[in-house]
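[Meeting: bench + compute handoff]

Bench side (C.D.) handed over the final construct sequence. Compute side (W.E.) agreed to return the predicted structure before the next meeting so the bench team could plan truncations. Sequence as handed over:
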Amino acid sequence: MAVYLSAEWFQHLREALGEARADQGAPDVVLRQVVTGTPGGDVSYQIEIRAGQASLVAGTTGDADMTFTSDYPTAVAIARGELSTQSALLEGRIRVSGNPVALSTHQAVFGHLDPVPAGLRAETTFR
């Protein structure tokens, strides 16, 4: 069992994302997720889509097109499947900054991308 947001958990998520594909013709995009107040401090990671391939980078490298920031309880509820990302956004539990057009160019991949795939969710423990 991997602990949510640990190095092992990121490796499992990276493997799950390895199958995600985006529109080859769409521009590259970098989305940053920041989770505040985790038991180990603030955690950030990025989903990068380059040349139609989605990948995960733990930490932050360079600029992001959009940044999504939530507190740890919100991130856990989403990861457990108890709260949808859309509901969290509507309730103001996720703050968004950056260029929303960047997200819309890859709506096909992000619209179907589970923040925590079911297989990984079953193998995750939460502190």
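W.E. noted at the follow-up: The two ends are 12 Å apart (CA to CA). C.D. will use this when planning the next construct.
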